[in-house]
Amino acid sequence: MKKNLLWLMAIISFWSCSPSEQELLDEGIKMMETEQYDKAIEFFDRTIEKNPANTTALNAKGVALFQQSKFDEAIASFSASIDVDSTSYKPYFNRGNAYLEKKSYKEALLDYNTANGLDPKQNDIYYNRGLALLALEQYEDAIFDFDVALQSDPNNALAQFNKAKAQLGNNDPVSAINSLINTVNLDKQNGAAYYLLGVTQMSAFGQKEDGCANLKLALSLGYAEAKTWIDDFCKE
């Protein structure tokens, strides 16, 4: 009976204790790991209530909102984190990603530039900034960033593919062909890459046989735009 009473008292004591700021933050991160984003946000909000200057919680809340495609709310949370501490690259990078999703490419580029200045060793910054530069038609700068990304990860098929698009925008089909071949060698399910490879082979080099073969591969992978080219140029 005495043991039961002590056990009951221990439970009452535990639940009467308010969880600490760190415990709330840790629980939110656990919820993030299991993709329970609403619950994660609840824990991050409770953390922020205890300490409005907890930049980790502000940034993590932004990530949870981003994962729910609530980009404007995510941007507000990342901005709040930056207002408290502007020395970490993470909220700038994350806010840049949210702007990128909103197709606000100039704003994304500014944030990526700041993140890069704070930590130039972060490879993801170069790839994502390359995407923003590509969208802004700043092709030479985009190619540079994709090259930097590929130096540390040569098997990044998407970096090869987007580099090819930048090279085509920069009127360099020869280099683009090489990048597209690298892309499909790395990712044989990329219908868009086979399509762009086939179109470039036919339009820039008159390579009808190879071009048609790649267009047919693109169509077989579900890239429907290839059908128009096949119908127009690949009929016997």
Automatic annotation (TrEMBL):
TPR repeats lie at residues 21-54, 55-88, 89-122, 123-156. One of its GO terms (biological process) is post-translational protein targeting to endoplasmic reticulum membrane. The keyword Repeat applies. GO terms for cellular component: membrane; TRC complex. GO terms for molecular function: molecular adaptor activity. Keywords: Repeat, TPR repeat. It holds the Pfam family TPR_16. SUPFAM superfamilies: TPR-like. This is Tetratricopeptide repeat protein. It comes from Aquiflexum gelatinilyticum.
